[in-house]
Amino acid sequence: MNLASLDLNLVVALRALLQERNVTRAGQRIGLSQPAMSAALARLRRHFDDDLLARVGGGYELTALGQALLDRTTTACDLLERVFASQAEFNPSREEHEFTLIASDYAVAVFGTELARTVQAEAPGIRLRFKQVPNEIIDSTGSLLSTVDGLLLPHGIIRGFPTVELYQDSWVFLVADDNPEVGEQLTLDDLARLPWVTYQRAYDAPAARQIAMLGIEPRVAVSVDSFQLMPLLVVGTRRVALLQRRLADELDGLASVRIMEPPYDAVPIQQALWWHPVHMHDAAHIWLRETMVRVAEMMEAGRPASAKGTAERRPTPNGGRRVEPV
After folding, report:
1. Cα distances (Å, whole numbers) of residue 228 to 134, 198, 206, 243, 259
2. Calculated CA dihedral for residues 250, 255, 261, 265, nearest 10 degrees
3. CA distance 79 to 81
4. Phi and psi of 138, rounded to 5°?
5. What is the pTM of this model?
6. Are 20 and 59 in contact (CB under 8 A)?
7. Which residue did the predictor score with more confidence, 301 or 113?
8. Which of 121, 150, 179, 257 shows the smallest number of beta carbons within 10 Å?
9. C-alpha separations of 217 from 94, 221, 269 in Å
10. DSSP per-residue codes, 241-273
């Protein structure tokens, strides 16, 4: 398909028509008269050789092709908007701008809060919007990344997109303070025998694969899509949960649980920022990436991220903090 032969204004019209399923409302949405919108629909029908909108009773429904085009058109428009919003220069202290990041509640609690503090201090006109990691992140990574500014996710889940390292973390287990079935040290037998609280999505896939390789199939009693809720689902039960150490430290004291070391050499967590190639040379996005790396480096070193002019900021292997054994 030769893009030069296409009227890309039709993409905007197509999105409005598919979402509104009404010619008049679609025209009002993008500032076109009803006759102009009807003409756009006629051109689209000729191009796709499909009605796209089929009259059913007093309204319209999408044809099979129209339904298939709905998500694709939305993604295409979002990507085009980001392409044409790209800037050659970006002054964060004066700009009004919003960045959208996909992140789990763990990533927001551990890293997003630090990032938000730094952005507020250095660029008060910049807004951050965090969205939960969707279930389809593995199957539709490109489409999802094209609609946002970045994705906070550890290595081992997706690949093939630009990325920059942020910080390291490790896995620990949680058990209730009053769980009489667990001694001073957690064992593989405990993990095989006790019921589990697990995270619903594929976020912890490398850790889950490692557990499976040890011959342990977790007996899942509760599954939840929030890492921060997991300690509460362990309290007062026989359950065990696998959680990131940094988050466990943040939540320490909020729930009557014990933080315990894995009874095996757990795979480490290398948290990273992933983004769509369309953002690679955009000045605003370059600033965002550099700021996130700086926040991560300061976080690893245990200093406020907004403190500028400091010397060495290289991450340390264990995340910048001494971790005492439990």
Report:
1. 17, 11, 20, 9, 14
2. -60
3. 5
4. -75, -40
5. 0.70
6. no
7. 113
8. 121
9. 53, 12, 21
10. EEEEHHHHHHHTTSSSEEEE--SS-PPPEEEEE
In 44-135, at which residue ranges do the beta strands (DSSP E only) sit?
53-56, 59-62, 97-102, 126-131
- The encoded tokens of residue 98 equal 């919003």
The phi, psi pair for 35, rounded to 5°, reads -65, -40
Q: Rounded CA gap, 224 and 240, in Å?
A: 13
SS3 assignment, position 25: helix
Which tokens in the block code for residue 168? 């390291």
Q: How many residues does the chain have?
A: 326
Amino acid of residue 100: T
Can you spell out the DSSP letters for 157-192? S--SS-EEEEEEE-EEEEEETT-TT--SS--HHHHH
Question: What is the identity of the amino acid at 161?
Answer: F
Instruction: Show the tokens assigned to 84.
Output: 């044409």
Gap between the Cα atoms of 10 and 40, Å rounded = 7
- What's the pLDDT score for residue 70? 85
Tell the residue number behind the tokens 């429904």, with chain if given.
61
Question: Residues near 206 by Cβ (< 8 Å), separated by ≥ 6?
Answer: 154, 155, 156, 157, 267
